[in-house]
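User: We ran a pulldown and think these components assemble together. Before we commit to crystallization trials, I'd like a predicted model of the whole complex to look at. Sequences follow.
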Amino acid sequence: MTDPSSDNTPFATVLNRSLGTMIPTSASMNIEAIEVRPGFASMRAPFAGNGNHFGVMYAGVLFTVAELLGGALAWASFDQDRFYPLVKDMQINFRAPARSDVISQSTLSAAEIERISAEALERGKSTYLLEATVTDVDGTVVATTTGTYQLRAHRPAG
Amino acid sequence: MTDPSSDNTPFATVLNRSLGTMIPTSASMNIEAIEVRPGFASMRAPFAGNGNHFGVMYAGVLFTVAELLGGALAWASFDQDRFYPLVKDMQINFRAPARSDVISQSTLSAAEIERISAEALERGKSTYLLEATVTDVDGTVVATTTGTYQLRAHRPAG
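Assistant: Here's a predicted model for the assembly, 316 residues in total across the polymer chains.
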């Protein structure tokens, strides 16, 4: 994927160009990045095509629109030539039925970004938590997640 | 959906006829039921089309192939004219990268089925836990989940 720091195109635009190719599931769900920058990521999943037989958004879509933030945040916040992210576990709480498009968002503080980068550089990996919220168009929180991610250093080629 | 107890067709066959219509996400992921009966459910997600840019199955697919078991188990185990299931929360642990088709499975004991049915009949709802495992074609456990579900009684019409 293009280095987001190489020009002035918003990170979300760059990400949306390749997200569906990298993760076909995101394309099937028509999930798109709204805003992505170091320390912040937000995505949207449309209601259309993502429901279930009870007329609410399917749980797996709510999970995905939250989980994808981890990759987006890592891409925008860390040196992608050196590191890549892994998700180790995730807890999702379904707080209300979602009957509209939903928006997910998550943050990572500058201090955490610095800690994680330094640790991954020194030890080859660093573990961190990400909390995310998913809200409907009225602002009602429909799901919250807490995920454990790991930033890993690429192994030297050869 | 057709009542699974109305003929001798295997539950999984009946479920696969309508799963993709009920939950389009399952069709996009080409997830299918392998075996479904009271107290037991197993499903498969193919690797093709469900990967990510690291060459392993995407986390949201592993979540979905496990989460869908909750609906399948409830459908086969409880009186669907009286009850419907909800997922309240789920914890998923990613234990190994999945590089092949995966199979999920979960069980619910006869005693638990009886307890949940009785409680939902009496109080209108009953909470229960489901544990699921997701394995690759070599039998390696790639993910485990623990979900909190609730069986709810349909409200009287009108």
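Residues 4-153 of chain A form a domain with the Thiol Ester Dehydrase; Chain A fold (CATH 3.10.129.10). That may be worth checking against your pulldown data before setting up trials.

User: Thanks, that helps.
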